[in-house]
Design goal:
This protein is an alpha+beta fold. The protein is about 60% helix and about 15% strand. It has 2 domains: about 210 residues, no CATH class; about 190 residues, Glucose Permease (Domain IIA) (Distorted Sandwich). The longest helix is centred in the middle third of the chain and has 76 residues.
């Protein structure tokens, strides 16, 4: 009974000791998965090349792109630092377990040694038989037989327990060695990422210094951008107002009117979404295909120090993608506006009360009245004069502008 109870307590102890290890391993695995995913994303985004720095505009665009890359590198370095801390914590837990198992093994060895001493006292099998048959009567012989059998079973149990504890100790030591090796790999990776981050920051400082020397040209370019964006926003406001007025005027007729069903190409990377547009807030896909960088946020922006004090409001966000990137619909809806003006075009898609706006397009693949699904290709994103592929994206609730970063899963 004592042997069974001892084994039960040992199993319970090992189970309780393994719980913190399992939780720590789960946390570490999650961090590693996130770091790997971020590394893949960064490697993919590195294909978005910087333009030649032939003028102030291209330098400013390069600065925007570098700032976006630096932000992502910093996030990766921070994640790797947290991973290193988690690895260190895991090593500490394993080392603590190793010490405990060493103590258990030492105790088991003591019990085993005592059992061997008793075994030597009884001697050989012949001595055990003589011990049994030398009893005064039959009942005493039975008692001696049972005693010898119990002793042999206990002796085997102690040996098995020692063997089990030694195996568990070796496993813990192997785990510790493996985690230490992983820590070295993570540390090396962090150092590499830190070097790349420092290189990007040095390049950023160099461009900023050049722009400071050309402050007048920078201010002029920012004024030009502000003027252009103001005109774009005014155009969008007018188009949306016209569409809203049209809807108010002919709401009933428009609801009964049968529209042509289009089947534009879709992007398979966009997972299916259920529920309303509002219910998918924060889960909507990026409005362009391929890797991208967020180079300008929502609201008034004066950029990085060195770009001047002129505030620019794009009314949404600007995403830079690879050459050949296309604008894709973020949610099921209906194309309500297709607008072209000289070498500039935009598409507006209605999602019930909300509208998504895709600006700076070239070739458009849909027409007004088309019903489109999430991921549908709306058009090709145009290249600007510096050769950059940049999409200006806006979200509206009626006439009210919304912050796209709170709605999209960027």
């Amino acid at each position: 009974m004592k042997s069974v109870a001892g084994k039960t307590l040992l199993l319970l102890y090992l189970l309780l000791m393994s719980l913190p290890m399992a939780a720590q391993k789960g946390k570490l695995d999650d961090m590693r998965a996130r770091a790997r995913a971020m590394q893949v994303q960064i490697a993919d985004k590195e294909k978005i090349l910087l333009s030649s720095q032939k003028d102030v505009k291209s330098k400013m665009q390069n600065l925007d792109l570098l700032t976006a890359q630096i932000k992502e590198r910093r996030l990766l370095v921070a994640l790797l630092r947290n991973e290193l801390k988690a690895v260190g914590d895991s090593i500490a837990v394993i080392d603590k377990e190793v010490k405990r198992h060493e103590a258990l093994v030492e105790a088991s060895r003591g019990e085993y040694a005592q059992a061997l001493r008793v075994a030597r006292h009884y001697g050989s099998l012949q001595d055990k038989l003589l011990f049994i048959v030398s009893a005064d009567d039959f009942n005493a012989m039975i008692r001696r037989y049972r005693y010898v059998r119990q002793y042999m079973n206990a002796h085997r149990a102690v040996a098995e327990e020692l063997k089990s504890r030694i195996a568990e100790l070796e496993l813990r030591k192997s785990q510790a060695d493996s985690v230490r090796a992983e820590k070295e790999r993570t540390l090396s990776l962090q150092n590499d990422e830190q070097k790349e981050l420092l290189r990007l920051e040095a390049e950023q400082r160099r461009i900023v210094d050049e722009l400071r020397k050309e402050s007048k040209k920078v201010k002029k370019e920012l004024e030009r951008q502000r003027s252009k964006l103001a005109a774009v926003n005014k155009e969008i406001d007018a188009l949306i107002e016209a569409e809203l007025a049209k809807q108010r005027k002919s709401k009933t007729a428009a609801a009964d009117k049968k529209k042509t069903e289009a089947a534009p190409r879709t992007n398979e990377a966009v997972s299916r979404m259920s529920g309303s547009f509002l219910q998918n807030r924060g889960k909507l896909p990026a409005p362009l295909t391929g890797p991208y960088h967020l180079v300008s946020g929502y609201g008034l922006q004066n950029g990085v120090t060195g770009k001047g004090s002129v505030m620019v409001d794009n009314g949404g966000i600007v995403l830079q993608g690879k050459s050949g990137a296309q604008a894709r619909c973020i949610f099921d809806g209906e194309v309500v506006v297709v607008f072209r003006k000289e070498n500039y075009a935009l598409v507006i898609v209605e999602h019930d009360r909300y509208m998504s706006v895709y600006c700076q397009l070239d070739k458009i693949h849909v027409k007004k009245g088309d019903k489109v699904k999430a991921g549908a290709i709306l058009g090709d994103i145009a290249k600007d004069s510096s050769g950059q592929t940049r999409l200006l994206f806006q979200l509206r609730d009626g006439k009210q502008k919304l912050n796209p970063t709170k709605w999209l899963k960027l």
